[in-house]
Amino acid sequence: MTIDELLAALQAIIDEAAASEASGGPGLTDEQAERYEALEVKLVAARKVDEVQKRHAAYKVATPGQFVTGSAPKADDTLERAFSSYLRTGKDNADIVELRAQSTSNTEGGYTVPEGFRQKLVDRMKAFGGVGEVVENITTDSGNNLPWPTIDDTANVGEIVAEGGTFASGADMVLGTADLGAYKYMAGGGGNVPLRVSWELLQDSAFDVEGLISSKLGERIARIQAVHLVSGTGSGQPLGIQTGLTGVEMTGAAITYDDLLRVIHSIDPAYRQGGRCRWAFSDTSLAYLRGMKDAAGDPLWRADSENMGTELGGGTLMGYPVTIDQAFSGYTTATNAATNWGVFGDLAEGYVRRQVKDITVVVNPWTRAANGQVEYSAWARMDATQQNVNAYRAISGYTA
């Protein structure tokens, strides 16, 4: 008898006993129990034979000289595939419900995106800016207010006292506070409407719908965040890295070697040690500065072959690395002292950006259904502020 036949015979005995009991009979009799146990022995033996045959078949498949090993477990891409389906159709499915459960605020009807798509969106956001990648970055799971204490005790010093004496002066420590919230940034299409994608594109299986959506929505969020990281007002938006700071002023329309030296030495050596300092300004300013030479005729800007293709700027200016961020205004000979055009110093110590991990994408297949389009929008949360303005300096123009 086969395994299936044995299982059917066992079930028949149980059914027979159940029918007997239901009609007032004795239920499972001794004779039925003996038949059941005898069939059990045969079932165990049949299964053992079946396992041996399966192992033998696996041995024959293996090529000579190779070990037969189990394949590596396949990564679970269920959520990514479910989310891709959601992007194409806008319709819920059983797997995507888990994405909603991961988010604490989905009043818009969106879903927290899975890690794979979130990374694509974040990569697009990194394509803009520059400052955001070299300052201190904090990522939190929620957007609760994030306070921390601050202190500036650099003006206080100790003193010499006579034997048996005590201090005559001093000052108590004064602690301040700073905090980070989480401003909500949204992105959609033009004209205050979501990004619209035609059904024809979405129905083409070869079309990378995730690439398009992550590119456009990520870029749109990134553009405004990049501006705020540099020059945000701090009122209803993040406080920019150069906002409200009095910059080190250039002495003339043409920047000189001595001007750049003053910028460098405006930073306390405590922050300059360890290679932590860097420049940050726009590509327009870099183009200007690349034309500057020292007394020996050598360019002040030196190319860094390792980073030329991977980092905007990709070089050093007077020994310090350069970060390009197009949100800075570019330096020209008309830039005046009231305009900050760059920063220099330990930017990771001086400025902090806080991001909330959840990125939500909202898909609406209904509003533009008559036009054969699906609408997309996304939102992310971020805040940033100056945390130690002694660690870096803004750089401004000149007074004519």
UniProtKB/TrEMBL annotation:
Protein localization: Virion
Chain ranges of the Phage capsid-like C-terminal domain: 109-391
Record Pfam families: Phage_capsid
Highest rank taxon of the organism: Bacteria
Protein name in the entry: Phage major capsid protein
